[in-house]
Amino acid sequence: MKPKSLFVLLAVLTLLSFVAPAQAAEAADPYNGQSPYKVINGRSCNSDGSIHDTEEIVRGDSVYGTIQFRWNLRCNTAWAFVNFGTKLSAGESGNALIRRAGPNGSHALAFSCDTAGGNKHVQAAQTTCYTPMMSRKYSMWVEGYLYHKNSAGAWVTHAFGTTRWVPGS
């Protein structure tokens, strides 16, 4: 084996020794990617979860709803919950996202209400949606969106809100 090939092989093996345990731990988490309302190991994480922070979904001076960063310390999970307060009308849609940074601050993972384990985006005549749960680690934030159809029939962001959690806060 050439020295350069051996160096590359050793570098890849060293990298895998750091990545594989993290991926295995994430895969072993029974709550990650699941509905907060699903009973897992005899627990529904939503039933004894709490609201860490709530922010308004706004455009200019107008408030359209709220985005909540919800979590459960015993499940070690977090999820997003969006509430528009009143039913959306035709031509409106809403969604929530939960995002998590990686160990170096880069974007690592995101779930929306449309991700399996969520209850789908907010449609006309609906008011709320939630994302699946995500294991709490690194910095995390949630985003809430209200979309309107424009004159060309395309969905565009009409209002937005966000809140975050940083370990230790």
Keywords:
11 strands; disordered N terminus; 2 domains; four-stranded antiparallel beta sheet; 169 residues; Immunoglobulin-like; 1 helix; globular; alpha+beta
Strand content is 35-45%
- What do we call the CATH topology of the largest domain? Immunoglobulin-like
Main pleated sheet = 5 strands, antiparallel
Which regions contain 5 or more consecutive residues with pLDDT less than 50? 3-25
Global morphology: globular
| Total number of helices | 1
Overview of the structural elements:
The termini are far apart. The protein folds into two domains: 1-30; 31-165, Immunoglobulin-like, CATH 2.60.40. The protein has one helix spanning 3-28, and strands at 39-40, 43-44, 50-59, 62-72, 77-83, 92-101, 107-112, 128-130, 134-135, 140-149, 155-165. A hairpin with a 4-residue loop joins strand 4 and strand 5. 15% of the residues lie in helices and 44% in strands. The chain is globular. It has 169 residues and is an alpha+beta fold. The chain is built from one helix and eleven strands.
Task: Summarize, please.
The protein is α+β, with helices and mostly antiparallel strands and 169 residues long. It has one helix at 3-28; strands at 39-40, 43-44, 50-59, 62-72, 77-83, 92-101, 107-112, 128-130, 134-135, 140-149, 155-165.
